Amino acid sequence: MELSFTRTNGEIDTLIDTLMEKAGTIHHPTLIREMIISALKSGQETSYPADLKLLNNTMKEMRYTTNVFAPYRNSRKVTIFGSARTEPQEPIYQTCVRFSRKLADKGYMIITGGGPGIMQAGNEGAGSDRSFAVNIRLPFEQKPNPVMLQNPRLINYKYFFNRKVAFVKESNAIAVFPGGFGTLDEAMEVFTLIQTGKTSPKPLVLIDDSDGYWDRWFDFVTSCILGKGFISAEDFSIFTITRDEDEAIRVIEEFYHNYHSLRFFEERLIIRLNKELTREQIDELENEFPELRLPGTRISCCPPLPEEADEPDLLKLPRISLQFDHQHYGLLIAFIRKINMF
């Protein structure tokens, strides 16, 4: 029998409904039904066991990730990337300890990869009670650090891609310390996700060491990547480089001074705010960022859309709406920074 996501499967649909009823307390049954159909279709279409194992393990890892993070949905979180080989006596390790401790004192929680080096520094500074560790099982270098070893917010992943989803999806800001291939891979993926609009805008802070690790990276990006036209100048709005942990914290906090969050509904972009903008301020945004809007459209205040009813705790926030062009995501970061100046 060829299964369909529409309710045209006869007895199979009835059995799925009965199964969910027997399980009890199923949230959003329409979505759960589609997940069950996907599993059944995979069983019909895929005979290679390694592919089915990948689908199965991915689902289990993401379910567990959601379960661990769900109680902390309303807590601001900062993800910290950096080298597993950084030693505790190195100045950049101590910078990370101070950085995460100061964030924890301000109410933030810290997400790290849960291993040694900069990851341990991040968990050490924030303390076990304010930390998450999204660890990856490797044959070397990546055992959970002693701060997080028995922590209920320690998650051990088989797949890098699931781990990367947790790092970005659950964070409100990203801080990247110097590191090797893994650190650069994680940082470049965040660049790409923000640049292409595949994750919500968030501050990305590159915290440098005394040798100018990120300064040298910036020289390469400017001379080679920008010089060859592979990126646009507006993409430099995506990140901030600093050697000062206090400046890094200011960048993170200022990003949410007035900006709260956003939602896309096709071309319509809804930006939620902590305080309402005046018409004069909106006019200033229109004049300074005309590229963000589709031709002939305006920025306006608006009430919450019916589609936002799934986030009831945010319905009271003031909003602005614009027809976004889905191209200038680097400029969107600059737009948000301008909003935060009002």
Automatic annotation (TrEMBL):
Gene Ontology terms, MF aspect: AMP nucleosidase activity
Transmembrane regions: none
Catalytic activity: AMP + H2O = D-ribose 5-phosphate + adenine
Pfam family, one: Lysine_decarbox
Enzyme type, top EC level: hydrolase
A GO CC term assigned to this protein in UniProt: cytosol
Biological process annotations from GO: cytokinin biosynthetic process
EC number of the protein: 3.2.2.4
Protein name: AMP nucleosidase
